[in-house]
């Protein structure tokens, strides 16, 4: 079997590693192996990596950075006179890493494991796989970055003979927290470490990272330029690109030094003249300016701890991942929380790709001891109607943080006699209310005529790449539909089939309180509570028209349903108002 390479496809930087004689090695692409995730157009030449980054400061409009933030969206990007999808740009970065690795290694690099933030949605994961495909690679697996980092740390500690010590110091309880603050994303995970690495919880923020820290310095520089030079560069892209680069350098310097002076001449302005800025920043200033960002990460840390149902004293070690964790305030803040825990010093930039290469080794059957247990990052649910037919809610099928791969089923039921179809909407997210979650796919199951309360079995599977498949089946009536969710546009699904299957006598699963379609039932429910009168008559007649249309007048169905729903809504809200007044 081919070697499987591990790739950390980062927002800011990417890395490629491979296992050699059981040990991960970072391939020194671009010198030190930390490859800027930047693409830049130079004439007709596309540059990637450090060369692209160098060009990007001078030609920001011909360069693309942080494309990872756009993965899973349909946004289009322009370089020269061509437009690209985010997957194309990521593919260029992947292709560059593999081509350069091939030159260094002397053989083809085709099979890869790519990492993504644990918080990435299915659409983002699928987009990442697609990028691999467009780069001509075989993506063996998508794994979570914190999990990869933990694999690597565990490996390093084990080979230092250190894990024994950690184990004994915590009397057999051995939990780790992975804190990953990179250029554009923040991830935190709680892991149970041992022979098996198990992710107990993971959460984070897909829009928080080093770029945000840089922007705070840029804002100060812009203010200073406005005051001293009387030019407003807030919207002037060439100047902003220059200032961003300056700000990042200042930030990095402040990780080592107590203060830094920013001196920048020849900052371009829209009128063609250049301007200068000179400003002193102390580490204290910078920490005060960015305190809220660190506080946001701490809130996520607390959330992850709560989800894992652990207190800080149970954490044996805190793993710092991502370039931003070199900022001393970050480690200091974590030390306050996890005083007793150890923070092993391992290069925070390389641990993810090195861990991915260990995962690659596990897949290709190399001798690696660790086994990985991964979890679902979001709850996957089906939209249904509550018992009182009053509102739609999300009924979880696979809860967040369930170990994957996983297949779970739940039985729903139809509401009325001869119901014609069940609308199936797949949601991702933690809220009970569909509106607050993300709709990732929808389809409908055409039903065979049956009594009300006919069971519909809905099964979700979540695979190791974090991809969802749904199968829904009208039990005992040979009706079934499947759902595939389009990677870049999860609202559109690709396959929806109605097929004959064997009648089966599977045991009944517990029936859920939820039903899949509801209009008739809601109307009946209301009618049973209404006093006789004109309004009740109107609703009765509307319901009759609706049921008639359901049976044999499909053309009129929409209109009749709208009319019935309007009456239902009006009556429901009137009743709610009366109830409130009584209270
Ligand atoms: P990503 O995973 O998003 O690609 P990285 O882990 O490579 O990101 O981290 C990149 C971020 O780390 C950038 O914002 C960079 O400025 C920041 N960074 C790198 N080195 C340091 C340092 N010594 N001190 C503070 N920040 C740093
Ligand atoms: Mg990273």
Briefly summarize what is shown:
This protein is α+β, with helices and mostly antiparallel strands and 583 residues long.
Index terms:
Substrate Binding Domain Of DNAk, Chain A, domain 1, binds adenosine-5'-diphosphate, binds magnesium ion, 6-stranded mixed β-sheet, Nucleotidyltransferase, domain 5, 3 domains, alpha+beta, 583 residues, 14 helices
CATH topology of the largest domain: Nucleotidyltransferase, domain 5
Distance between the termini: 71 Å
Class of the largest domain, according to the CATH hierarchy?
Alpha Beta
Task: Count all strands and give the number.
Answer: 28
Question: Can you characterise this structure?
Answer:
By secondary structure, this protein is α+β, with helices and mostly antiparallel strands. The protein has three domains: 4-208 and 292-375, ATPase, nucleotide binding domain (Nucleotidyltransferase, domain 5), CATH 3.30.420.40; 380-502, Substrate Binding Domain Of DNAk, Chain A, domain 1 (Sandwich); 514-582, no CATH class. Helices cover 35% and strands 30% of the residues. The chain has 14 helices and 28 strands. The strands form seven sheets. Strands 1, 2, 3, 4, 10 and 11 form a six-stranded mixed beta sheet that branches. A six-stranded mixed beta sheet has the order 17-12-13-14-18-21. It has a five-stranded mixed beta sheet with strand order 27-26-25-22-28, with no helix packed on it. A hairpin with a 3-residue loop joins strand 1 (4-9) and strand 2. Helix 2 (86-105) packs across helix 3 (122-134), helix 6 (210-229) packs across helix 7 and helix 13 (534-552) packs antiparallel against helix 14 (554-582). The protein is globular, with a radius of gyration of 28 Å. The chain starts with a strand and ends with a helix. The model is unreliable at 162-173 and 486-516 (pLDDT under 50). Bound molecules: adenosine-5'-diphosphate and magnesium ion. The site of adenosine-5'-diphosphate (ADP) has 21 residues, from helix 6 and helix 7.
């Amino acid at each position: 079997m081919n070697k499987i390479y591990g790739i950390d496809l980062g927002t800011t930087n990417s890395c490629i590693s491979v296992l050699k004689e059981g040990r991960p090695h970072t391939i020194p692409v671009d010198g030190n192996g930390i490859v800027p995730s930047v693409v830049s157009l130079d004439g007709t030449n596309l540059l990637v990596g450090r060369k692209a980054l160098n060009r990007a400061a001078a030609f920001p409009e011909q360069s693309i950075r942080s494309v990872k933030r756009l993965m899973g969206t349909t946004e289009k990007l322009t370089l020269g006179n061509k437009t690209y999808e985010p997957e194309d740009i990521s593919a260029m970065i992947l292709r560059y890493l593999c081509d350069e690795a091939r030159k260094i290694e002397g053989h083809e690099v085709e099979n890869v494991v790519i990492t993504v933030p644990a918080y990435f949605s299915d659409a983002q994961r699928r987009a990442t796989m697609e990028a691999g495909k467009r780069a001509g690679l075989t993506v063996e697996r998508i794994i979570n970055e914190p999990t990869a980092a933990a694999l690597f740390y565990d490996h390093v500690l084990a080979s230092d003979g250190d894990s024994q010590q950690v184990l004994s110091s915590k009397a057999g309880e051995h939990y780790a927290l992975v804190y990953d603050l990179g250029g554009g994303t923040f991830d935190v995970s709680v892991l149970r470490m041992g022979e098996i690495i198990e992710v107990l919880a993971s959460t984070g923020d897909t829009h928080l990272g080093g770029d945000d820290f840089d922007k705070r310095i840029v804002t100060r520089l812009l203010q200073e330029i406005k005051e001293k030079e009387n030019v407003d560069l807030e919207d002037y892209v060439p100047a902003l690109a220059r200032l961003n680069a300056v700000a990042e350098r200042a930030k990095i310097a402040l990780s080592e030094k107590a203060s830094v002076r920013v001196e920048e001449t020849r900052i371009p302005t829209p009128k063609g003249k250049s301007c200068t800025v000179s400003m002193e920043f102390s580490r204290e200033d910078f920490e005060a300016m960015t305190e809220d960002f660190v506080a946001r990460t701490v809130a996520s840390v607390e959330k992850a701890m709560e989800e894992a149902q652990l207190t800080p004293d149970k954490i044996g070690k805190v793993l710092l991942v991502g370039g931003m964790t070199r900022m001393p305030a970050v480690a200091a803040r974590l030390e306050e929380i996890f005083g007793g825990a150890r923070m092993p010093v391992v290069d925070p930039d390389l641990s993810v790709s090195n861990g991915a290469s260990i995962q690659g080794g596990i897949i290709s059957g190399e001798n690696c001891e660790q086994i990985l247990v991964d979890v679902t990052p979001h709850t996957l649910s089906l939209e249904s109607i509550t018992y009182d037919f009053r509102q739609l809610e999300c009924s979880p099928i696979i809860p967040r943080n369930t170990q994957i791969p996983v297949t779970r089923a739940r039985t729903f039921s139809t509401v009325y006699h001869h119901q014609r179809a069940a609308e199936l909407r797949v949601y991702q997210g933690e809220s009970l209310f569909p509106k607050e979650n993300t709709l990732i796919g929808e389809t409908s199951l055409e039903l065979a005529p049956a009594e009300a309360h006919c069971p519909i079995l809905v099964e979700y599977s979540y695979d190791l790449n974090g991809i969802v498949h749904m199968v829904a089946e009208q039990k005992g009536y040979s009706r079934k539909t499947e759902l595939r969710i389009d990677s870049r546009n999860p609202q559109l699904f690709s396959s929806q089939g109605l097929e004959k299957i064997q009648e089966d006598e599977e045991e009944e699963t517990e029936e859920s309180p939820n039903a899949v379609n509801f209009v008739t039932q809601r109307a009946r429910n209301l009618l049973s509570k209404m006093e006789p009168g004109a309004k009740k008559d109107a609703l009765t007649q509307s319901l009759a028209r609706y049921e008639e249309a359901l049976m044999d007048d499909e053309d009129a169905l929409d209109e009749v349903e709208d009319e019935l729903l309007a009456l239902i809504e009006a009556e429901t809200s009137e009743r709610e108002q009366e109830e409130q007044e009584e209270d």
